[in-house]
Structure formats: C-alpha cells, structure tokens
Description:
Blueprint: E1 3-8, H1 21-30, E2 34-38, E3 44-48, H2 53-68, E4 74-78, H3 79-87, E5 99-103, E6 123-126, E7 130-134, E8 153-156, H4 157-168
Antiparallel strand pairs: 1-3, 1-4, 2-3, 5-7, 5-8, 6-7
Helix pairs in contact: 3-4
Amino acid sequence: MPAYIALLRAVNVGGTGKLPMTELKSMCEQAGFTKVKTYIASGNVVFQSKLTEAKVKSTLEAALAGYAGKPVGVLVRTAPEMAAVLAANPFAQMPGNRTVAIFLDTPPPANAFETISNQTTEQLQPGLREIYAYYPDGQGNSKLKIPAAKTGTARNMNTVAKLAEMAQNL
C-alpha cells in the first residue's frame, strides 16, 4: 500500500489554524488511512492509503474543512516523491534549517521568479512541484515575497528529511 505525506498549510503557525496533532491523526484514521503518524505540530502527517494522491488530498481537505469550518490547504507527496525532493535539494551544502522546499500542487510557473519581490540574500531554484529557497539570514528575517508560492506550504530540509525517513519506514 502506498505511503503518503500530507502537509497542511497554515496550521499551528503564528497562532492561527490551531489543530492538535491528535485530532489530525484521528481524522486520518477515520478517513481509512493506516499507520498514521504525525510529526511536529505544524501539520505533517505520514500514513498509508489505497487511495490515489488526488483522492487522499480531497478526502483530507473535506475532513479538515468540516473540523475548521473553512478550507485548509493540503499538499500531498508519495514516499518516493518526498525522497526525491530531499535528493534534488540544490542547497544541500547549506544548513537544513535555513533551506526550505515550498510544496506546490503543480510545477512552478515559468515566470515564478520574475514576479518575486524583496529578494536580498535569498537564493531560489525551481523543482518539479516545489520551489527551493535558501535563506542565509533565516526565513523569519526575510521579506521575500513569492507570489507563485501563495497556495503552497514550506518545510525546512530537516523536516523534509525526517518525513521522507518516516514514510520510507512505514
């Protein structure tokens, strides 16, 4: 059975979108997902499901909308896809806590880097369905705006590595 990683957008960050991970785990189990494990309180869940990636996404988004009373974005990757995101990191030599993959539903648009603003020391590279970003001064200190990433969600490479490992071990 395929292993999936679901990344929730804007959950438990900055005091908005509070969702206890026990509730997320319960929602996933009620949806029929198995071997459900959450990782840190920022909306990361690893599980197995017989469903397709698209059906996993729609099922989880429906459950979350019912819980939160509003849409909650969900980005889904298979275990091999998450391992590939980690392997393709163009900033692998940089600290994992300063390098992120911004997960998107579709490939970044061709003009994704033409529309950014406030870029100073940050470095960017496109991925398959991700945008990689290295923040030398830390993401919290950056004013970088990436319009193409507005419906995506970022995870630092330390988290990507842990999620890839968890999914592989299911």
